[in-house]
Amino acid sequence: MDYLEFAKDVVSRAVERGVEAEAYISVGQNTSVNVDRGEVEKLSQAGSKGLGVRVVRDGKMGYAYTSDFGAGSIEKTIEAAVSLADVADGDEYRSLPAPQPLPEDDLEVYDQAIVELPIGRKVEMARRIEKGALRYDQRVVLTNRCTLISQYGTVAVANSKGVAGSYDKSFIGGFVMAMAADEDDRSVAYGFDFGSRLGDFKPTEVGKDAARKAVGMLGGKPVPTQRASVVYSPMAATSVLGALSRALGADAMQRNRSFLEGKIGETVAADMVTVLDNGRLPGGIATRPFDDEGIPTAATRLIDEGVLQTALYDHYTATRDGTASSTGNANRRSHSTMPTLDASNFYFQPGQETPEDVIGGVEQGLYVESVMNTASINPISGDYSISAKGYWIENGELSHPVNEVTIALPMQELLHNVKAVGNDLTFVPMMGALGSPTIRVDGVMIGGV
Amino acid sequence: MLPNESVRRVLDAGLANGADLAEVYLENKESLSLILDEGRLEKATQGNDIGGGVRVFYGNNAAYAYTDDLTEESLVEAAGVAAAAGQNANNAAVCADLTKGESPVESRIERPFEEMSTQEKAGILREMDEVTRQHSPHIVSVQCGYTETRRRVWVYNTEGVWAEDDRAFIEFQGQVAAQKGEVRTSSMTGIGGQIGLEFFDDRDPVGMMPEAADTALLMLDARPAPAGEMPVVINNGWGGVLFHEACGHCMEADFITKGASAYTGLVGEKVGPDFLTAYDDGTIPGRRGTMRFDDEGAPTNRTVLIENGILKEYMWDLTEARRAGRASTGNGRRQSFRDMPMPRMTNTYIDAGPHDPEEIIGSVKKGLYAKRLGGGQVEIGRGDYVFTITEGWLIEDGKLTAPVRGATLVGNGPETLRLIDMIGTDMSLDPGRGMCGKGQWARVSVGQPTVRVPKLTVGGTE
């Protein structure tokens, strides 16, 4: 089936009702394999498909979706979208975007090798994740949820202004929980890796990473409550980026829901802080040729050497701004949601120092390896207080493990207090496609005993 | 949905390769969601999600395949894909007669969603918005949302299970932002349950908004929360999210049977104070976690998790129950037909205790009162948890003296449960906003009376 032709056909049917219309189609094949002690404990395989129809009339928008591609269901879906638009309130900035030329660079988001990967190889890769963990150290007593996921599919978007595009995408990933135990303590940690290309995926490393973290945290204890320097691992640093990306959305800025509202042109961070969003990063998790309303993705410099430059825009927020253009950041979780503004590959630009040098620069402080409850960080107020695990830094070196502590500092201060940026940019796909090198932040409040 | 003869043929196809159990799950979900922002009804979405899955067991291992095409032919094909995972299996299982299951929960949607127009539903959002804006000039943003879902499920398996459930779900959400000079705050609220339009008989989505606005306004002038160890008193109702996160997840059977939970092997052991009793109850009328049957066709239950401080029972799904050679407790849930079930909580709460709630606050010389909590997270293997206090108060000499902002609580679940030294008489369930993520989303309810923990780590900035 030609999904782009199908999307265009849906658009032309909807237009007959006197509306602007957009059709979004997503079709995919998913496999998930779960192993336990080498045995395939759970295996799931299937194809799925979905259509979302967005219509706009007099600035009023309606949306409806279905997973049934039969003619009757399509008519019903269009009808539902049109009647919801009648109920909605109009807005002079609401419209569908006109087409823009699509650059033809190879974004490396589709790998035929993932499509052709036989089920036996997938099972074997899941087993390698588990072995990587169990063989790392004899204190690794078990693994749980050892999972391999592979997906591939097609996305097509068309609208009545002439937007028409489709692309194929593939994905492979794995994760595992490893538990380590000794006479006095037990600890657990997760390892994971996701990517668009089979060749980049290293299952054994996923297991080893979980095991290394779990074993390292055995005997972890809280430290006394104090203000100190904190060195964030790339994974822990993404806690800062998640809330920052939401605060940098033009919707949050336009609607009084960002601690960065009104600050464009101002210094909002230390001068070593540069923040980028790049939807065209080759092979990136969030990379794609155009966003979920058909606008080409782009590289956007949001904070340049500490100075706030711009926000992230979709078609609506750019129209409303009047002078901005969309940065290609319209995103949907699936065909069942209308596009919302979201970051793509969003990251701190790396610096020159090695991670060892960053840690070496701290006499006494906390090295944070992993964090929890990052969803609680508030992009409106800037309140930032999360739990952390890691190691105490003693004279520039990691010493004993630390757990059950909190780290807190308002985001406004945190960005200004960045004192070192490493050269080890790493993307952490579990939290979107956020990327960071090792960074050091001074004056963070550590809550412990 | 499908005639029983068709279901039988799908089940037989599941058994064809020597499996010992096959299951068919069918689902039809219809949703409407409305979002009002800046006083405008901006986003209105409606949709339908239909599909089915076939699960085939070989001993403790399971294979699953699903389809969004609900014809016998497609389901038989899915059954074939799932059955193919079996190697050298030769169980002689045959399909038992399908018998329609009974549940302790009555199925009744008194007033279906169609009795109210979309325009009327949007009207409630408009009222929520107006009431909030009029509340204070410092309110700078109001966002309100309405969601209704009707999810019909049919579950059959080769042991004769035949269960049907028709779940109506309503939810209202509100988010408020306040500003004074450079200081910004926000607050969220929600109310909902498994219920039809009779929801409006005794629940008031408009009424919850001024309270949420008050929290945001109060936080504008709040001082930063303290950091360090101190006594903490947690409010009743939604405060039960502490027990859900810190202990409930560690009592879900998938982590238990692996030996991966802090509560593995502790049934019959003392895990909390004598006056602590806790339940998971999927049968409470109208609550978020309420169902007639779980997503594997087992009737829901009221499960005593802890009785007088003694751990009594875990929460089981079919997979883990088979592994342990016992019955499910009706806790097998899945997000949709695209997902395999796992043990999940339903409505989980700590029951009323012996202490007067005012005396509990009065007993603290210097500590923190967590009046409103946000979300939380737990690392199930060890039980380490964290969650956010969205409205906190300092307690000084037994009195609430000053609001504080930006506080987080961290601790270890099993340890915190043992430490609890006062439980109030004022048990209540939350108004209905709990969404639990464990790889899949599930709507849950939580509850508790006022609870005191004599020593917890608070993560503020002072």
Fold topology:
The complex is a heterodimer of chains A (449) and B (462).
Chain A: H1 3-15, E1 20-36, E2 39-57, E3 60-66, H2 71-87, H3 112-115, H4 119-134, E4 140-159, E5 164-181, E6 186-195, H5 203-216, E7 226-232, H6 234-247, H7 250-254, E8 275-278, E9 299-304, E10 307-308, H8 315-321, E11 330-331, E12 340-341, E13 345-348, H9 355-360, E14 364-372, E15 385-394, E16 397-408, H10 411-416, E17 418-421, E18 426-428, E19 433-436, E20 439-447
Chain B: H1 4-15, E1 21-37, E2 40-58, E3 61-67, H2 72-83, E4 99-100, H3 118-135, E5 139-157, E6 161-180, E7 183-194, H4 199-202, H5 208-220, E8 223-224, E9 227-234, H6 241-246, H7 253-258, E10 278-281, E11 302-307, E12 310-311, H8 318-324, E13 332-333, E14 342-343, E15 347-350, H9 357-362, E16 366-379, E17 384-396, E18 399-405, E19 407-412, H10 413-419, E20 422-423, E21 428-429, E22 434-437, E23 441-448, E24 451-459
Parallel strand pairs in B: 4-6, 8-18, 9-16, 15-23
Antiparallel strand pairs in B: 1-2, 1-5, 2-3, 5-6, 6-7, 9-24, 10-11, 10-15, 11-12, 13-14, 16-17, 17-18, 17-19, 19-24, 20-24, 21-23, 22-23
Task: Describe the structure in your own words.
- The complex is a heterodimer of chains A (449) and B (462).
- In chain A, 23% of the residues lie in helices and 38% in strands.
- With 449 residues, chain A is of the alpha+beta class.
- Chain A folds into two domains: 3-216, PmbA/TldD fold; 226-447, no CATH class.
- In chain A, the strands form four sheets. Chain A has a six-stranded antiparallel sheet with strand order 3-2-1-4-5-6.
- In chain A, β15 (385-394) and β16 form a beta hairpin.
- The longest helix of chain A is centred in the first third of the chain and has 17 residues, at 71-87.
- The radius of gyration of chain A is 24 Å and the shape is globular.
- The model of chain A has no long low-confidence stretch (mean pLDDT 95).
- Chain B has 462 residues and is an alpha+beta fold.
- Chain B has three domains: 4-28 and 47-98, Double Stranded RNA Binding Domain, CATH 3.30.160; 113-221, PmbA/TldD superfamily (PmbA/TldD fold), CATH 3.30.2290.10; 227-459, no CATH class.
- Chain B contains ten helices and 24 strands.
- In chain B, strands 1, 2, 3, 4, 5, 6 and 7 form a seven-stranded mixed sheet that branches. In chain B, strands 10, 11, 12, 15, 21, 22 and 23 form a seven-stranded mixed sheet that branches. A five-stranded mixed β-barrel of chain B has the order 9-16-17-19-24.
- In chain B, α1 (4-15) runs parallel beside α2.
- The longest helix of chain B has 18 residues, at 118-135.
- Classes of the chains: A alpha+beta (449), B alpha+beta (462).
- At the A-B interface, β2, β3, α2, β4 and β6 of A face β2, β3, α2, α3 and β7 of B.
- β2 (39-57) of chain A pairs parallel with β3 of chain B, so a sheet runs across the interface.
